[in-house]
Amino acid sequence: MIASDLAMALDPVQLARRVGVTPDPWQADVLRSAAPRMLLNASRQSGKSTTVALLNVYTALYQPNSLCLMLSPSLRQSGELFKKAVGIYRDLGRPVPAEVETALTLTLENGSRIISLPGQEGTVRGYSGVRLLSIDEASRVPDALYMAVRPMLAVSGGRLVAMSTPFGTRGWWYEAWESAEPWERYEVPADRCPRISPTFLEEERRSMGVWWFDQEYGCKFLDAQDSVFRRADIDAAFTDDVAPLFPAPEGSTSWPSILIPSA
User: Fold this and answer.
1) What are the Cα distances from residue 33, in Å, to 10, 41, 52, 215, 254?
2) What is the pLDDT of residues 151-190, one digit of tens each?
């Protein structure tokens, strides 16, 4: 038993197996990763929520005094993600006793806490020293909320894991995925998930249409169907090679300039 507990402490994949979860290769990579920033662009029903719930439980158990925040766009989604984490904790046999267990909070005797919060800026401010910040359905989380939670990691040097399917070519989730910032990125379309059958996917493609299917199951960032201009065309209209007509604002070094087509 001691050897098994030590194996779980050293490898979160062993913790997953203890509760009956056999991780797919990408899930094992996420669980074992030490990257401070991760983006999981993963299909619906691919197991991303389970993976992040496992990561939160592992952190709370084996890194005492850890504050693990799980952020979701709505109260219902917060509750569902928290249930996954608490279910894993219970299936492990509650290896560290709980001091407090509510609908959205688990406080352990080792000082660690797992807290699941709905995505409202007014409810998330005030937390600090976060060891692990998880953002569920990140493409639906507003930019203002995302900017409000990032400072929680400033002092603690904590980790940020964001997971979602795409939802258009807008917002911080899309910008982060396309940026040159050092995120560790995972793209997991449905055809990489052995639990989703090709027959079901073909039925979904026919029922949903290509635009919805490619985002929900194919991990593709697509322009909104009612967009007048493509995002690629808008991005191509900007350049740093043309001198701006007006000086850059104070504290900034440059303005991107708009290319004006010649007559």
Assistant:
1) 12, 16, 12, 26, 37
2) 999 989 999 999 999 999 999 999 999 999 999 999 999 9
Structural class in CATH, domain 2-195:
alpha beta
d(CA 152, CA 150) in angstroms, rounded, equals: 5
pTM: 0.82
Rg (CA), the chain: 21
Cβ atoms < 10 Å from Cβ of 84: 19
Q: Give the Cα separation of 3 and 222 in Å (integer).
A: 48
